[in-house]
Write a structure and sequence with these properties.
six-stranded mixed β-sheet, elongated, 11 strands, 16 helices, single chain
């Protein structure tokens, strides 16, 4: 084959390669626009360095994967099959497939908190089917319309670049843009190496945001050259909870709570789900899905009554009243196997076992009812509760038992400061947070969207889908866990410093 500079084959291949670079630049702009959704899916960095790192990583990484897609697809095709019209058509099809896949991944990450992967396929399909079933025609039109719009963009970009190739070759823009992107790529990896070595989590917490993102880490690189103190590094990243016998400490005096609602709220605890369903039908209670509770009944009851994870259970063993109720006698508890009765007449919040419930007597005011988890080997159980109080029925986030008590104190009693001062939870009537933390059976439970991370005291961990229960193949998110441990130890006298 004659590949001299004068041969028509070589000339077409050279022109196609030049055209391919401009076609890739057009797609980089589109990819950058779509990938903004990844940055909006999680909380933004809190420091200037974290924000700068996010910006340059977004520019460089998205540009890099787009260029790699060109090198792996259009580049070899241009050499083997240098026919401009066919190459432009195939390039438009390939780019449309790539952009569509990226958009799907961005949607999944925004909704579930993880990228496309085989292990999460059931949950991803469930998410897509749920969106489709709500409005099939609208979703179909939007999906097909988006794909067609991308395909038209690819055809227009490819044809325009080919027709104006001679004019585009005179521009110096590619040199400057390439220099900026390469500089951003090198700078972002350098910052990540430093941040990983110094446990600067505002940078390293961004590791899993962008797709196919595997930044250079410091541990192996610096340790290989004897530039890293391994003990100091491991201490900074320590997430151990082996000494979980913590004292409960809060600021006194506590905010005074004068209940703003005279009608008491009643929480009914069932042991069997069938009995719960019958009760809910009788009182016309509405179901609220995704109640994430410990499978250990003792820990679950502690979460509900005290508004705290079981991390503080040993510190509360001698307390008759929960801390949030101790100043005003705000709760009565009766019939629960795992906690002594608390007899307070006219208490504004009543927690009662279904076994002691007088079914002949009407219950006034807010009612919340749930059943304890069935006996299983799982650490946590994803169920539901019923109520006539919560308007957070359609929120696609996990709720916990200590969230229920927090909400009753903050919203029903009108004492948000008391709830914040004594409990770990969120107000389900006002909060839209999709993160939470718990501790049960010696296991740290932290969730974000659908992903639940379980970390045992020996350091072993696993990520699972909270909805479906299957394992997710994803590395341990150290910054996410550090932040959750800080939340867990909010009232601990043993301060945790990452």
């Amino acid at each position: 084959m004659n590949l001299t500079p004068q041969s028509p084959f070589s000339s077409k291949a050279s022109q196609l390669l030049s055209w391919g670079h401009w076609f890739t630049f057009a797609n980089i702009g589109l990819v950058l626009l779509i990938s903004i959704s990844y940055l909006l899916a999680d909380k933004p960095p809190t420091s200037a360095l974290g924000g700068f790192y996010m910006l340059i990583t977004w520019l460089s990484h998205t540009s890099f994967i787009t260029f790699c897609a060109f090198v792996l697809t259009i580049f070899p095709l241009s050499l083997v099959f240098p026919y401009p019209r066919h190459i432009r058509g195939m390039a438009a099809l390939l780019a449309t497939c790539g952009i569509s896949t990226l958009s799907l991944d961005a949607f999944v990450y925004f909704q579930l908190g993880y990228h496309l992967n085989i292990q999460a396929l059931p949950e991803i399909l469930s998410l897509l089917w749920g969106k489709f079933s709500v409005s099939p025609i609208l979703v179909s039109v939007l999906a097909v319309g988006f794909i067609l719009a991308v395909f038209v963009f690819e055809l227009l970009a490819g044809n325009r670049a080919w027709r104006h190739l001679a004019e585009l070759k005179q521009y110096r823009f590619p040199k400057y843009a390439t220099a900026i992107l390469v500089s951003c790529f090198a700078t972002s990896h350098s910052i990540h190496i430093w941040a990983d070595a110094n446990a600067y989590f505002d940078v390293t917490k961004q590791d899993n945001i962008l797709p196919l993102s595997y930044p250079t880490t410091a541990k192996t690189l610096l340790a290989r050259h004897d530039l890293l103190d391994i003990k100091q590094y491991e201490q900074a990243r320590d997430i151990s909870l082996t000494n979980a016998q913590s004292q409960f400490a809060f600021n006194r005096p506590l905010p005074k709570c004068l209940p703003q609602n005279e009608i008491p709220a009643t929480v009914v605890v069932f042991e069997q789900h069938a009995a719960l369903t019958a009760f809910a039908n009788k009182y016309q209670l509405q179901p609220t899905a995704q109640l994430l509770q410990p499978s250990d009944h003792n820990d679950a009851i502690f979460n509900l009554v005290y508004g705290l994870p079981a991390y503080y259970k040993s510190a509360m063993s001698q307390n008759e009243q929960p801390p949030w109720s101790s100043e005003g006698q705000l709760v009565s508890v009766s019939g629960l196997s795992f906690i002594d009765d608390i007899d307070v007449k006219e208490a504004p919040i009543k927690i009662i076992s279904a076994n002691q419930l007088n079914t002949d007597k009407n219950i006034e005011g807010p009612v919340i009812a749930f059943s304890l988890a069935p006996h299983s080997t799982d650490i946590v159980y994803n169920g539901m509760f019923y109520s006539n109080y919560f308007d957070a029925v359609d929120q696609p986030t996990f709720k916990q038992l200590h969230d229920i008590m927090y909400t009753l104190v903050a919203s029903h009693l009108g004492c948000p400061q008391l709830a914040t001062s004594t409990m770990l939870g969120r107000d389900l009537k006002h909060s839209i947070s999709n993160e939470g933390v718990n501790y049960t059976q010696g296991v740290l439970v932290a969730f974000r969207k659908d992903r639940i991370t379980l970390v045992s005291q020996d350091g072993s961990y696993k990520n699972v889908s909270g909805t479906e229960g299957f394992a997710i193949d994803q590395k341990l998110d150290i910054p996410f866990l550090i932040n959750n441990i800080k939340v867990l130890k909010k009232f601990s006298s043993q301060k945790h410093t990452p």
